[in-house]
Predict the structure.
Amino acid sequence: MAGLYVGATAGYSGKNMIALGIGLWLQKNNRKVGYLKPVGAMPVERNGAWGDEDAFFMQEVLGLDQDPALVTPVLVTEEFKAKAFSGQCQDLMSSIRHSYETLSKGKDVTLVAGSGSMYSGKYCNVDGVSVVKDLGIQAIVIDRFEKELKYDYLAVMRERLGDQLLGVVLNDVPKTYMDELKTLLVPFLERIGVKVLGVIPRDPLLGAIKVVDLAHRLGGKVISAHAKADRVVENFLIGTMQVENFLTHFKKHRNSAIIVGGDRSDVQLVALEGDCPCLILTGNLYPNEIILTRSEVLEIPIIIVREDTFSVAKKMETLLSRHKFRDAVKIKQGAEVVAANVDLAYIREKLGI
């Protein structure tokens, strides 16, 4: 049996997307795929059983139905953390090892999903590096572009994991960085023994969020065009400037939610007529009747939130960079993106499956 750990240099780097892309491709190629998430940081209850939210989701998409206690042997609850920080960490790795051996039976490969970064869980010795070494499996490390790539971190992973590092995937890379990546960074990584398995270009759809989910995450509510609350938001634009300046920016960012004060009906109207995906009105100020009517006619939802424009913009920035990979459209898109940009045949060959 083969095992493949899918980890990352930081949280929210695309582990689920890439693990699913690999798993679905292998299933399509008649391989039996298992799944384990050794450490779960998002405990939830489903049908009377506790497990990790990501693990439940991944099992569902991969068509697996295993005991949540086996799939996620270490569940990080508040009680768990209190014990761990007070020095009461038991031998957690033996539970992880038991789960891996049990879930791997009858499988060609078991995907082992990381939580956070490769060093998350170090406080109780269940970090990604320790899990990979203890299970004796191969690992892929994902690095998501955030202002730059973490090449030093990847070099350290090569030193720590040695030949167990199968390779790295560079994710969410903007077009403007591609030349530097191909001419400098990829050759550097290859030279120090780090195989670059793929470079995934930035895809707005994968970071997008539905209006209804956005309202919930912002602590607001949709007050109009409810039937279109499934529209997708890819970006945002702040509408605090004068109308003329706003128009110039808006033309370049058509698929952006507009964050604007509830008293700025001039900007609101321009945004609605320009077919923005939604309006986010701040300060708990409701729009006038003209705006509400146009919103309904044009089928563009309006979200009302209590916070000020700057606070909402900061939240939006975080949400769009960390929104979970959940929608069916995203799953399909993500699987296609991984298949097109990651050397899956190489992975299969190296795993011997």
Observations:
- The radius of gyration is 23 Å.
- Residues 2-206+324-351 form a domain with the Rossmann fold fold (CATH 3.40.50.300).
- Residues 15-28 form the longest helix (14 residues).
- The chain has a mean pLDDT of 91.
